[in-house]
Amino acid sequence: METTNPDTQATTYVGLDVAKDRLDYTLDGRRCAHVPNLAAGFKSLIAQLRKITHPRVICEATGGYERALVTALLRENIAVCVVNPGRVRAFAKAEGLLAKTDRLDALLLKRFGEKMQPRRHAPMDQAALALRELLDYRSQITEQRVAVQNRLELAGPILRERLEHQLEFLKQQLAEANRLIRDHIAREKNLRTKAERLQQLKGVGPVLAAVLLAHLPELGQLNSRKLAALVGVAPFAHESGHTKRCRHVRGGRSNVRSVLYMAAVTAVRSNPVLAAFYQRLVANGKAKMTALVAVMRKMLHVLNKLIVDPNFALVG
User: Fold this and answer.
1) Beta strands 12-18 and 55-60: pairing type?
2) Cβ(23)–Cβ(36) under 8 Å?
3) What is this structure's pTM?
4) CA 305: distance to chain centroid?
C-alpha cells in the first residue's frame, strides 16, 4: 500500500487521465475538460488548478507520457499522485464499473483519490530526472544487446556478420552510456555525495547507486518497511482461518528490484556480514531465494539508514 498521512487541510482531488496526445481532467467530479499533452496544455491546466483550494492531481503511470506533466506540476508546487493502473482498475471493478473511456477514467481517478488518499509523488530535482533518462537509455541499449546476442546464437553465415557489427556498436553505446552516467553523477554534488555514501555498503556498485538515486527518490524519506513495499521485497501474508500459506513478495518497482537482486547476489559472496546473515537463514531451513530476498530487504534498510543518518557508520 502506498499511503499518505491524513491531510490537515481540505484537499481537492483532481482526476486526470493521461494519453499520448491529450489530458482529460475533472475538477468537480461531474464535468470533464481536456488540454493537449504539451507545455501549452500544462500551462492551461495549471491556470485552472490555481482556481481551486489545495489541488491534488491523481493520474496513472503510463510508461512515460505522464513524466513531463508531473515535472511541470511539481515545479509549480502542485501536489500530484502517480498511481498504479492495476489499483485503479481494481477500484473500478469494486464499483461495478466495466466501461472505460478517457472521460470515465478521469472521473474514476478523482473518486479513487478521495477514497484511497494515495501517497504524494516525491519531488525530484532536475539532476535526478536527467539521471533517470540516462538510465532508461542504458536499459534500452542493454535490452537490444541481449536480443542481438540471442539472435546471434542461431544466425546463419549471411546474417552473422551483420549481427556481430550491430553487437559491437551496442557495446560501444553501452560504454558511452555508462560514461555519461558517471560524468553526470560526478558533476552534481548532491548525487555524488549520496552515491559515494551508498557505495560504502560492500556489494553496492555504481549501477545500483544510480538506480536508487533516479528511481527511488523516497530513499531517506520513508521508513524501511514502506521502502521494502515500494520496491517489492516485502512479504505479504496469505492466511484465512486455519489456513496459513507461504508469504510472497509482490508488486513494487521492478527496475529497482532487479538491480537490487543482482547486488544481493554479489553481497552474499563479498560482504561478510550479509553472507553470514544469508547462511544463517539457509541453515534454519529457509529457501535460498527467500533468504536472498531477506538480504535485499536488509540491504535496503542499511542503505536507507546511510542516507538518513550522516553519522551512521558501517562496521567490518
Assistant:
1) parallel
2) yes
3) 0.82
4) 19
